[in-house]
Amino acid sequence: MNRRKALGGILGFTGVGLASFGGYKYFLEDLNKNKEEIKVYFDVISELVDVIIPTTAASPGAKSAGVQDYIIYYMEDCSSKKEYHNFLNGLKDLQEHCLDAYGRNFENCTIDQKIKQVENLDNNSGSNSLFTKIRSKLLGRSFFNIIKTLIIEGYCTSSIGATKHLTYLPVPGRYKAIIELSPNQKSWATK
Known about the structure:
Helix content is 64%, strand content 0%. It is mainly α. The longest helix has 32 residues, at 3-34. The mean pLDDT is 82.
């Protein structure tokens, strides 16, 4: 075996390893540094949560269940970089559109204006088209898809949502594989 080739291979392997580690470390620092920006939009997220699942006479809304905190924690700790940027860009676009249309931020708009903005987001999401499915595979989920999913997850898994909005029995008794719901019965929180 040639010593020069062996030493060159070892040095090359070491150099590639150090470069990879440096790139990985840079990527992680950049990712964690930018994820603090979402906290600026806490009020906007709170109002979106309140518009999508509002408080009614029968059950408290998602805002009182603290779903906005769940969304912030999820976006900081669990989301991919692509999903995080799609979410942040969606929040920025929503704010810009409200400023252009009404001259004020989303959180300062009237309830009718907020509902109209959420309806526009829903209509523009095109959730069932083939183009949207291909786009979400390539570019990640859309802002409205992310926010709807997180609001429903956060609300249904919160103690308020599980006990007040859904039917919840901490000790359900016997296991039944198929349970028919009676008319106007709430869905089960535990399955």
